Amino acid sequence: MNKVALITGASRGIGGAIVSALASDGWAVAINYKRSKDTAEALARELGGIAVRADVGSSEQVAAMFSDVEARLGAVSLLVNNAGTSYYGLLSDMTDEDWSGLVATNLTGAFNCCRAAIPAMVRAKRGCIINVASMWGEVGASCEAAYSATKAGLIGLTKALAKELGPSGIRVNAVSPGCIDTDMMARFTPEDKAEMIDETPLERLGVPQDVAAAVSWLSSDKASFITGQIIGVSGGFVI
Ligand code: NAP
Predict the structure, then answer these.
(1) Is 36 a pocket residue for ligand 1 (Cβ < 6 Å)?
(2) Is the beta carbon of 108 within 6 A of some atom in ligand 1?
(3) 21-27 long-range CB contacts below 8 Å, 24 or more apart?
(4) Rounded distance, CA 34 to CA 52, Å?
(5) What is the pLDDT of residue 69?
(6) 0.90 exceeded by the pTM?
(7) Which ligand 1 atom minimizes the distance to the CA of 180?
(8) Strand residue runs (E) in 34-153
(9) Ligand 1 atom having least distance to the Cα of 133
(10) % the chain with pLDDT above 70
């Protein structure tokens, strides 16, 4: 089977770092984006991959994206469900649209992509799926209850799919980042960030490359006996 990786939400932030790490590991990379066309295409030119647009919350767009990737690079053997969005505020202030938008991207997006990727992996008797969860999916965060729920859902999906797909030679794991300095943290003040650093035993914010290194390892043969695991990348924030 070809080394073809599809990374969702890969135009920037953690996804962008994952794409760079996997390309240097020798994967042909399909860089999914929703809005950031220019950055995704620039990354594809730089790394020799392809940029593919789809809103992961749409099953039709995801199905079309997988057909496009298969036609241009071959069947996807590594899927990284990284696309994600956040909502900060009280649960009781959320609208129906806030809730359904968050669930569509963070949880239904992973379902749509797994469902599209699994048949070819089962046929090949080989494959790897890595979900990008969050430490808040493990322990919950005040003012991020809906986000925490979607990430807890991803953790449940990871463990259950690992059992379902193990006999087909497919490994399913998750990485669980802590506070990683990306656009997603733009709403936080320097004082907020100082507090996060204070609560992190390794006394710094993470960088996207910290998460990418864990994904690179999990996708490699070095992790060939590892499935159903949630690998924390939080500097010890959650232990
Ligand atoms: P980011 O900088 O805000 O990037 C989000 C990425 O997701 C962008 O590439 C965006 O693409 C993409 N995206 C959003 N909605 C999408 C959709 N419906 N379909 C396809 N792509 C979509 O965020 P990040 O910090 O790198 O986060 C990446 C992942 O790590 C997320 O799942 C997030 O929950 C998780 N995480 C982050 C942290 C943190 O502290 N930063 C901590 C724990 C977990 P476009 O720009 O093209 O729209």
Answers:
(1) yes
(2) no
(3) 21/209, 21/212, 21/213, 21/215, 21/216, 22/78, 22/80, 22/212, 22/215, 22/216, 22/219, 23/47, 23/48, 23/49, 25/216, 25/219, 25/220, 27/3, 27/78, 27/219
(4) 9
(5) 98
(6) yes
(7) 40
(8) 50-53, 78-81, 127-132
(9) 44
(10) 100
Q: Is-contact 9 83, C-beta < 8 A?
A: yes
Nearest CA to ligand 1 atom 32: 84
pLDDT of 1: 58
Where do the structural domains in the chain lie, given as residue ranges? Answer: 4-233
Span 4-233: which CATH code?
A: 3.40.50.720
User: What's the rounded Cα separation, in Å, for the pair 230 and 232?
Assistant: 6
Q: Please give the pLDDT value at position 2.
A: 81
For residues 193-203, one letter each, b for 16 or more C-beta atoms within 10 angstroms of the residue's C-beta and e for the rest, the string is eeebeeebeee
Other beta carbons within 10 angstroms of residue 57's beta carbon come to 22
10-residue mean pLDDT profile of the chain (239 residues): values are 92 97 98 98 97 98 98 98 98 98 98 98 98 98 98 98 98 98 95 97 98 98 98 97
Residue bearing the CA closest to ligand 1, atom 33: 84
Dihedral sign for Cα 47, 53, 58, 64, please: negative
